[in-house]
Amino acid sequence: MAKIYYQEDCNLSLLEGKTIAIIGYGSQGHAHALNLKESGCHVIIGLYEGSRSWKRAEEQGFEVFTAAEAAKQADIIMILINDEKQAKMYKEDIEPNLEEGNMLMFAHGFNIHFGCIKPPKFVDVTMIAPKGPGHTVRSEYQAGKGVPCLVAVEQDATGKALEMALAYALGIGGARAGVLETTFRTETETDLFGEQAVLCGGVCALMQAGFEVLTEAGYDPRNAYFECIHEMKLIVDLIYQSGFSGMRYSISNTAEYGDYVTGPKLITEETKNTMRKILKEIQDGTFAKEFLLDMSDAGGQVHFQAMRKLAQEHPSEKIGEEIRKLYSWNGEDKLLDN
């Protein structure tokens, strides 16, 4: 069994005197930077010139530099920009500024595992991957808690890579919850599979299919939205808190009975075979090649943008927008401007 590390296993003092460059100031970037800063670490931000995040990072108390300038100053460089942009930025801005003993860090193993980034042998290469979005990494830290993380060491040039990565995990609050040891390969493949087959692709498709079946049968779209989409959070929150058994304890006997008899009718062996095919295409690099080609200058994101536009036009999106306006807390902490 892989080891799980906690606060008592981590030494934050290892980061004393070190400069940590956070490359990117989006969802994960802002959370890592602010949490590390409040843990007493010296943090700078690296962005591209003209970034919309530049002013925000400065307003939140950080020195902001170009990615190249930040990498040149840093002992630890955490890359937190989009997967498809990392290889080019690394080659142009980070690689020329790496020094012996630096630690190159990632929050997702994609570019290392698929060989898009090949660091020199004289640097540590590690990963701290929070198992939650950046805004949750931040809010849990502020609440005195933390989001569980994964830790992996791909290259240990200094002999201290794991200890340094764990210190980083403590700095962002992850060690308060627990840090599970893994590998870049395992994190990458399981993360991509979870996103595609369950968390994003699977769940969104299931909710929208349920919405479509009810509306096609003549039911009010607002009823369909409440039953198949809105209530998903309520169920997931119960599972998050107490597992499947806790969720089933909290729902009615009618709902629990329907859970047992209907779930297997939907998720069949055929469904699992499709999931196995998805996993295989992740493992052999098929998905990565397809994704990177579409996101490249040659691909122009044509397929990606077409899929995004089609998804945004789904009837459940319009109904959901109308329903959310009725909530008394509407407008608080919205992720999107409707």
Q: What spatial form do the alpha-carbon principal axes imply?
A: globular
- The mean pLDDT is 95
Number of strands: 9
Largest sheet: 9 strands, mixed
Task: Note down, in words, how this protein is organized.
The chain is α/β, with parallel strands linked by helices and 338 residues long. Helices cover 55% and strands 12% of the residues. It is built from 17 helices and 9 strands. The protein has helices at 27-38, 53-59, 67-73, 83-94, 110-113, 134-142, 161-171, 174-177, 184-199, 201-216, 221-230, 232-250, 253-266, 269-283, 286-295, 302-312, 315-324; strands at 4-5, 19-23, 42-47, 63-66, 76-79, 103-106, 124-130, 149-155, 179-181. Helix 2 links the parallel strand 3 (42-47) and strand 4 (63-66).
List its traits.
about 350 residues; alpha/beta; nine-stranded mixed β-sheet
List the helices and strands and how they pair.
Elements: E1 4-5, E2 19-23, H1 27-38, E3 42-47, H2 53-59, E4 63-66, H3 67-73, E5 76-79, H4 83-94, E6 103-106, H5 110-113, E7 124-130, H6 134-142, E8 149-155, H7 161-171, H8 174-177, E9 179-181, H9 184-199, H10 201-216, H11 221-230, H12 232-250, H13 253-266, H14 269-283, H15 286-295, H16 302-312, H17 315-324
Parallel strand pairs: 2-3, 2-5, 3-4, 5-6, 6-7, 8-9
Antiparallel strand pairs: 1-9, 7-8
Helix pairs in contact: 1-6, 3-4, 9-10, 9-14, 10-11, 11-17
